[in-house]
Amino acid sequence: MADWMVNLVPFASDNYAYLIESDDGLAVVDPGEAAPVAAAIKTLDKPLRQILITHHHGDHVGGVAALKATHGAEVVGPKASAGKLPLDRAVSEGDRVDCLGAELTVIETPGHTLDHIAYYTEGHQGLFSADCLFVLGCGRVFEGDAPMMWNSLLKLRALSDETLVFCGHEYTMANARFALSLTPDDSALQAHIDGLQERRDQGAPTVPSLLGDEKRFNPFLRCDDPAFQEALGLSGKSAAEVFAEVRARKDRF
Ligand SMILES: [Zn+2]
Q1: Under CATH, which number does the domain 4-252 receive?
Q2: How far is the CA of 113 from the centre of ligand 1 (A)?
């Protein structure tokens, strides 16, 4: 298998773009701004082959045109936005994308936006979840509805525990405060959050996280867990109803 690693490119106040690196060159996921990505490309000194887009929001696509103009990379993104994004290749559920010798599978994850997709590589156990799944959180439901978003999260939850989750924003500590407010007696959650806080205190990102940890600690992935439902006073509700309620509480938090 080709050598393949993921470099984080932080920009704005809390966004992450990802610069994937192999012997073949570079690929970038969600370059919301061109300048920080261009600087990282210069440092790594390899050709940019591909630009991967997860959804149409400006803080994920803002740098695409400038990077494409300079580097001529192939732009890959969701078919649902083919009309409004400058795509060379439009992809949808189940499509495979060769990314620097690794295979990425496209997973449609609508809810935050209708066009939202995630990219998953089984070979390198990586998931680019953008604004669907965050560390200890999930994206706001802007264009879809709660059942749609819950279904999208279920698709990501079905991946293996060892999957590394590369999400679109560093929202972790705010998400952690909310998660703890729901289940304040969960000492394992508190210990997990202490570990994340330590990383932040050292100025380090909390990304990537392990999907196994998200399954255990992320409240938005626990909406069908009877113990969690009971702790929230939501026993007997459907998972999608619990998700809608937890998402609404977070929006007010
Ligand atoms: Zn977004």
Answers
A1: 3.60.15.10
A2: 7
